[in-house]
Design brief:
single chain, 233 residues, alpha/beta, Rossmann fold, globular, disordered C terminus
């Protein structure tokens, strides 16, 4: 199936970034703000959201769990995503809701692609099958140095399996996010080094500017699709 954006009445907004960038905080605040505008909102996260997705999330992130090789990790992420798209995202969008997700497919290209070294072309084929061609309407990449992100999380208990991969790995992930944001017209980099309230204002501004045409569209009327995703290089 050809990947499309905006093919349903709802809207799909994704927040991405390295560990400690503030995705969960900003996703929650964004969802609250959208609800305040009278929009129906589904707030979720990935991997997770579904029963199978939450089980896979625990397996992927549990620091003391079994050893997981890069191909296995990729396929587990995509298995969780297949359920996530079909059980949560697509039904919500078809009902006209705005879905706000803490992570989606860009994480896979950043972590398993740039971080683990798996071919982006291979990931693209598998991910397209897992998502049934679904793309976010807007991807907000919260960006800050990985050292700063880990420092933010240092008081929150032991690191999970991904956070424990080390600085070189996480720097590759950050570089991947910035590279992909430069290739995708529907992605925007949001500086995330400020206070949560400052980052929230930046997020709101980007959503307002880029989703302005969707605020008052008639319920149930599909919006125009953006250009198809570029081929992965």
């Amino acid at each position: 199936m050809t990947a499309e954006r905006g093919a349903t009445p709802g809207r799909f907004l994704v927040l991405e970034g390295v560990e400690g960038a503030g995705k969960s905080t900003q996703a929650r605040r964004l969802a609250e703000w959208l609800r305040g505008r009278g929009l129906p909102v589904v707030e979720t996260r990935e991997p997770g959201g579904t029963g199978v997705g939450e089980r896979i999330r625990e397996l992927l992130l549990h620091e003391r769990g079994p050893q997981i090789g890069a191909p296995t990790e990729l396929l587990l992420v995509l298995a969780a995503r297949a359920a996530f798209v079909r059980e949560i995202v697509k039904p919500a969008l078809e009902q006209g809701a705005w879905v706000v997700s803490d992570r989606f497919a860009p994480s896979t290209f950043a972590y398993q692609g740039f971080g683990r070294g798996i071919s982006r072309d291979r990931i693209a084929v598998l991910n397209d099958y897992a998502t049934d061609g679904l793309l976010p309407d807007l991807c907000l990449v919260l960006d800050l140095p990985v050292e700063d992100g880990l420092a933010r999380k240092s008081g929150g208990g032991p690191h999970d399996r991904i956070e424990s991969e080390g600085l070189d790995f996480l720097r590759r992930v950050r570089r991947g996010y910035l590279t992909m944001a430069g290739e995708d017209a529907q992605a925007v980099v949001v500086p995330a080094g400020g206070l949560p309230e400052e980052v929230e204002r930046l997020v709101r501004r980007e959503v307002s500017d880029r989703m302005a045409g969707a605020w008052n569209a008639p319920s149930g009327q599909p919006r125009p699709s953006a250009k198809p995703r570029r081929e992965e290089k």
